[in-house]
Amino acid sequence: MINTVILPVAGLGTRFLPATKSVPKELLPVVDKPLLQYAVEEAWRAGMTHVVLVNSPKKQGLETHLQAADPELVADLTAKGKQDLLDALLGTVPEGLTVSVVMQPQALGLGHAVGLGGTAVPSDATGVAVMLVDDFIDAPDAGCLSDMVALHDDTGAWSLAVEEVPMTQVHRYGVVSLNDSGRIQAMVEKPFAEDAPSNLAVVGRYLLPAAIISALADVKPGAGGEIQLTDGIAALLADYDIRAHRFSGVRYDCGSKLGYAQANMALALRDPAMAQPLRAWLKEFL
Ligand code: UTP
User: Fold this and answer.
1) 10 CB under 6 A from ligand 1?
2) Is residue 51 in some structural domain?
3) Residue whose CB lies within 8 A of the most ligand 1 atoms, among 12, 17, 53, 258, for a mutation test
4) Spacing, Cα 134 to ligand 1 middle (Å)
5) The domain containing residue 214 runs over which residues?
6) Ligand 1 close to Cβ of residue 53 (< 6 A)
7) For residue 140, what pLDDT is reported?
8) Which of 19, 143, 206, 253 could potentially form a cystine with 42 if both were Cys, beta carbons 3.0 to 4.6 Å apart?
9) The total number of structural domains that make up the chain
10) Whose alpha carbon is nearest atom 1 of ligand 1?
């Protein structure tokens, strides 16, 4: 059974200061929805009914966004007949979704966060999904994670979402090498270009065997002094068929200002109410 997704949201968000001084990066909106909500919706479409939020005690508002709406606001919108806004408010959390929260007191790394999240994964789970909320993937159909679940259902293979990046960028990512059948044979976190096994970079979607949780317990600090998820996955490669999934759609790195601006522009240009005036304004502005 795979119905749990771990969302690690306890990082420091330093690339987005000062916005993230008091607002978690994962609550920054793309047009009108916070990044967290896009991730939850993608997870839900992939069949995940249990979200494990790995949060920092210092980050406020993330749990609140996944809780029931304020009854006073619901009553107010209802009384005023503002049905669209009411639907948007009540649709924040899919009905039937359960949310667990695990605290990561210190940001010791993504692998550390996922390991802590593992304590809330049911013991009968065969696998677990992990999504990085700031990697926003604008994809056709149900989305990237859904395709990865379908791959697992069809073949039994686990997978990591990957995309090709310029060699000058590999030092920012986990990078994989593949064997002839597409199975990942090696992974290295944030390599120098000369040491990188390829330019296939792992982005923020993972569908992993449940064994990742115990593997992470043995991982020591690696690149950047952090406990790396990559090192936990690398320990599983010999025993599990883990593949690189080249996803459809466009990924925006919303942990960076440029990626965030691009995501907002792309979605705004598709929004029925905004597309036409925004396009006209852009033409003049540029
Ligand atoms: P990032 O490295 O992109 O996020 O981690 P960050 O550390 O918050 O941001 P910068 O680099 O300082 O700007 C990817 C995801 O993993 C979470 C982050 O919250 C982010 O959503 N994370 C990272 C944790 O939950 N715990 C950690 O110890 C590290």
Assistant:
1) yes
2) yes
3) 12
4) 9
5) 4-157+204-285
6) no
7) 84
8) 143
9) 1
10) 11
> What residue type is assigned to position 54 of the chain?
V
- Please work out whether the CB of residue 133 comes within 6 Å of at least one atom of ligand 1: yes
Distance CA 245, CA 110 (A): 20
Among protein residues, the one with the nearest Cα to ligand 1's atom 5 is 11
- CA-CA distance, 10 to 102, in Å (whole number)? 10
Contact 205, 137 (CB under 8 A): yes
Indicate which atom in ligand 1 lies nearest the CA of residue 26. Answer: 21
Does the pLDDT value for residue 181 go beyond 90?
no
If you write DSSP's letter for every residue of 15-56 in order, what string do you get? GGTTGGGTS-GGG-EETTEEHHHHHHHHHHHTT--EEEEEE-
Instruction: Find the CATH number of the domain harbouring 52.
Output: 3.90.550.10
Specify the 3-state DSSP secondary structure of 167. helix
Tell me whether residue 197 is in a domain: no
Contact present, 98 and 206 (Cβ < 8 Å): no
Helical H segments across the chain, by residue range: 35-45, 62-65, 71-79, 83-90, 110-117, 144-155, 211-217, 229-234, 257-268, 275-285
The pLDDT tens digits for 74-132 are: 999 999 999 999 999 999 999 999 999 999 999 999 999 999 999 999 999 999 999 99
Q: Which residue's alpha carbon is at the smallest distance from atom 10 of ligand 1?
A: 13
Asked if residue 82 is part of any domain, the answer here is yes
Structural domain includes residue 177: no
CA of 79 to the centre of ligand 1 (A): 41
